């Protein structure tokens, strides 16, 4: 069976309202494929029956299941490599000088999915900060299921094979049955929480580094601008913002400037406007 136009409109409107993700016409097959396991899990015969029942009797839990299913969770360890090389070669050496009085680094992994990015950042800081330094990494995601998975910190053999060097697997993981679990020593520096990047963000201490990678591509321009403004409020004046290779602030939010960072680029707040201060535009 295939989705009707009315069913697709219902799902796309729900996802747009709750997650600000734009599902353009032509994504019907994707939506149906993602929702088949959801329909089965709640006992519906198929996606059409599931959606029909949900429209007759709105159910917040099942609506959340749709959001979770349609949130793209593509991730891997040290994804794209260049941003992590930029951290070790450019960003951390600068921040080590700038934070000499506190000897602490705070990092935000926005849209952290099942946690690979946040833990990759933890490994990078663990291996590259001087002795006596500390760090905190906060991962956030709009999917309740992904936040639970990230907190569990357990990964299959297939998952650890995606970008994780064998040496770091041995050093930072331990066997958990058929899976691999991040060691408690590394987990203690990383926390996760549910968060919608397009909604007003809760009060948080500012960050030195923000990874907001491969997120903006799913939003329209107005939503991208909102997300970037939200991120800027939590970025220290001399902090660093990393976006995905196909993403940019140019033409969206001119409070940022693009700067070279090794073999890639990053973004910094123009004129070092303090985190949380009113912004232009």
TrEMBL record:
Entry-linked PANTHER family: CHEMOTAXIS PROTEIN METHYLTRANSFERASE, CHEMOTAXIS PROTEIN METHYLTRANSFERASE 1
Reactions listed under catalytic activity: L-glutamyl-[protein] + S-adenosyl-L-methionine = [protein]-L-glutamate 5-O-methyl ester + S-adenosyl-L-homocysteine
Domain CheR-type methyltransferase, chain residue ranges per copy: 1-272
EC number: 2.1.1.80
Pfam families hit by this protein: CheR (PF01739), CheR_N (PF03705)
CDD domains assigned: AdoMet_MTases
Protein name: protein-glutamate O-methyltransferase
Gene Ontology biological-process entries: methylation
GO terms, molecular function: protein-glutamate O-methyltransferase activity
Keywords from the UniProt entry: Methyltransferase, S-adenosyl-L-methionine, Transferase
